[in-house]
Amino acid sequence: MLFPKLRILTCAACAGFALVAQPLLAQRANRPDWTARYQAIVAEKGQKADSMRLHELFAVDWDYGNIEYPESATYSGYKGQNDRWTDVSLAAINQRKKELQNPMAVIASIDRATLSTSDQLNYDLFRRGAEDNIAGTRFPGEYLSINARSGPQLLPQTLELNPNSTVKDYEDIVARIDALGAVVDQTIVLLQKGLDAKVTAPRITLRDVPDQVKGLLTADPMQSPVLVTFTRFPASIPAADQKRLTAAAVKAYSEKVKPAYERLYTFLTTKYLPGARESVGMSALPDGAAWYAYNVRIQTTTNRTPAQIHETGLAEVKRIHGQMDSVMKSIGYKGTFAEFTNFLRTDPKFFFTDSADLVRAYRDIVKRIDPELIKMFGHLPRLPYGVTTIPSYAAKSATTAYYQPGSYEAGRPGFYYVNTYALNTRPKWEMEALSSHEAVPGHHLQIAIAQELTDVPNFRRYGGYTAFVEGWALYSESLGPSIGLYKDPYSKFGQLTYEMWRAIRLVIDTGIHAQGMSRQDAIDYFAANSAKTQNDIVVEVDRYITTPGQALAYKTGELKIKELRAYAEQQLGPKFDIREFHDQVLGQGALPLDVLDARIRAWVSERKAKA
Q1: Total-model pTM
Q2: Is the confidence at residue 91, as pLDDT, over 70?
């Protein structure tokens, strides 16, 4: 999975996210007149070609997204915003919701028929995103601004994305730290509004959040994760500046940040958690059924109903069970499925006892994959990646691993984060499948290729559709036999366990949010059909509860890519080239599944015509 963070599709793609960011209040006074900038493009109709005005729209909207949401600027390498946080005061949120109409006014003034084929696709994708954002304003997502996977308590991870090689870089980090008091206080306002509106995360999923906050509070400021960047200055920073910057950061932490996090801790423990809802399904929220249907459509980029997706999940669980039974027979195991999965969860031979050994093993896996990639891909990205560990203060409630995208413009590699908390829940047999998903040929390969595209607008280079991004990563797990993985039958069973995991998601996510499935029923169903450890199962079920619909994207996207590959193989026969197919899938960045379908079918027709 991708570490939860903002990825812009259009200027307002952020509107439905509970951002881990808050304002420097003074920035509202100096805010650009965005409406005037968009209206200026509308006024050029008849004076400039529509294709030129379309790209002016993309440029203005890119500026809007990065200036209004500075964390995205840091992520993408857009310059000049690394000292700021997003203003998510209620006034700012409401203003941005109104401003969603600005790009639509420009789109309405452009005649699509006059555009080139490539710009028609750009137009369609931009318009689709803008319309989806407007539709999303019906739902108060800003009230859900904290959970175990996002919120101001995780801001140290955002700070680590800041460039940190010059004095100015560190001055930017100090400025962000200095603003964390506003981050926390406005988060409290949003959470209180959520309590008043009865729109909160389920109480059970918030149980670790107070401890996450407490983990940032230390007697010695330099021991706090907030200031970790100031414990490892590069040699390029003069000693005098290191001393000055550290002192400024410590002052900001002591006088603003620590008191603010203490206020948040008190609010969470005395008001928010006691007042949070006991229900787990999204249907329990006001307008919850429509909200969930919206999430399902956005996350899967399909019009399939929760009921249809649920049935697909049940069918996939049954199919994958058959393959798992075959692997058990090949090993010679005579017991039941439940006994075998218990063996995999508990036998000490499947677990490391030292976290350093676990991390080294992950690094060994991905470096064994790297030279095999050329067999499967005609184009590989330049951007490197590394393997590191999930910070300890966040690890307990974090998933087994995640990928944090890099940025060539920012000089930041991608990182594959692995969880070293509770080593007896991190089995060796899952590591190859997990690595192929999070690093290569999964997230790192796909996202780095998209970022390096030169012929698409920035909103497509850095944007994403969960069904494509996560569908590709799940599909990548199935490529293991072609890149030297799963030679050990337990690792093969691990790959099937991971595929089963994503099929189970279809059943559980729709079951909880549309069919009244309880949390315990979801945990029991997961445990009965998977070898995942109990800790992982609980964390995963709570994730589905916290982010309704997101988990549906994986299997939906994977099944579409496999369907298109089977179609291309059948149609092209001996002319089918796996490297060419993969390059076609990845060559235009992330796409909605219906657009990907049309693209691959057009490519197959073109290849057949040439043959």
Answers
A1: 0.92
A2: yes
